[in-house]
Amino acid sequence: MVASRPIRTAKELLAQQLIEEEQLATIADVAKQYAVSITPAMHSRIVDLDDPVARQFVPSSAELVTTPEEREDPIGDDPFTPVPGITHRYPDRVLLKPVLVCPVYCRFCFRREVVGPGDSLLKEDQLKAALDYIRARPEIWEVIFTGGDPLIMSPGRLEPILRELDAIEHVKVIRFHTRVPVVDPDRVTPELVAALTLDTPVWVVVHTNHSQEIGQEARRALRLLAGSGIPLLSQTVLLKGVNDTPEALEDLFRTLIVNRVKPYYLHHGDLAVGTSHFRTTIEEGQELVRRLRGRVSGVCQPTYVLDIPGGHGKVPIGPRYLGEDGASVTDPWGVAHAYPPKAPQE
Ligand code: SF4
């Protein structure tokens, strides 16, 4: 039976038969280190314990294994944090993180050292300082809400923040990164849509990793957002044992497109602590992306990207199709073809 509220402790996981009795002590240790939450919507999508939804949300002892390359701040947010709640890495955009809580806690989370219950909401004076920071810098063209999951905030809490941003002349785009429409779709209401309806265009980037996550309620939530004129993009993390097959990626990206969500980024797994069991190699990722190109329409293709550890930005790492010699090109099925070099000018 699906739990009526989020599952948050090892004992609750056991009561819902998501872990075995002998795992209880170890999973309690994992939960002490990294927050646990499985919403009723995601619980209802778990068919068995080895499936792509369970693997993303049910904690495992593998999280206690740290490899030498893993880091507490894998994408290097800290050096680019001028005031609490702001990350300013690129000149024309900032991340705004008003909350560090989420409806679910993904076992591969790249911010797992900072998200979770606790001191996780920006205080009023910190929020004011963050908005002042944006207001004082005309080069900031885009504000990206992330966290935590910003859409865990009620429309009533979001509205005044959005109104302030809407009034800043140089902020031309507001973007939300969220898992809410898929993992907690009941939060997507006409009130939320009203709060997101501003003069400044609001884009929503939906984080989702497998089509099994996207149930009827999620489809309704996406329809409500898209039908209200909010452009929808998606972000997916490439995860071993979850979506690291051409079939799983094809199914996810087709599902997104038919629900009016344009696949935007496929992220290579970050070097977050205790997540090595989820990481593929870059070569495996490139091969998957190459095979995907031969299987699905161009609109279904995201860009395969890597956040360079240490905060050095995000770059595409997709497979190379042009030969090193510049005189050949490989097709989506792996066959190389000659391409004539440019004839010398007379
Ligand atoms: S929703 Fe995002 S921030 Fe929250 S736990 Fe998942 S990956 Fe981390």
Report what the structure shows.
Strand 10 and strand 11 form a beta hairpin. The protein has two domains: 1-64, no CATH class; 69-316, Aldolase class I (TIM Barrel), CATH 3.20.20. It contains eleven helices and eleven strands. Helix 6 runs parallel beside helix 8 (190-196). It has 346 residues and is an alpha/beta fold. The strands form two sheets. A nine-stranded mixed β-sheet has the order 1-2-3-4-5-6-7-8-9. It has a two-stranded antiparallel sheet with strand order 10-11. Helices cover 28% and strands 15% of the residues. The longest helix is centred in the C-terminal third of the chain and has 13 residues, at 246-258. It starts with 9 loop residues before the first helix and ends in an 8-residue tail after the last strand. The mean pLDDT is 95. Bound molecules: iron/sulfur cluster.
Question: Briefly, what is this?
Answer:
The protein is 28% helix and 15% strand. It has eleven helices and eleven strands.
Intertermini distance: 77 Å
Proportion of helical residues: 25-40%
Uncertain residue ranges: none
Sheet with most strands: strand arrangement: 1-2-3-4-5-6-7-8-9
CATH topology of the largest domain: TIM Barrel
Rg, nearest Å: 21 Å
Proportion of residues in extended strands: 5-15%
- What ligands can be seen in this structure? iron/sulfur cluster
CATH-assigned homologous superfamily of the largest domain = Aldolase class I
- Which whole number gives the mean pLDDT? 95
| CATH hierarchy class name of the largest domain | Alpha Beta
Strand tally: 11
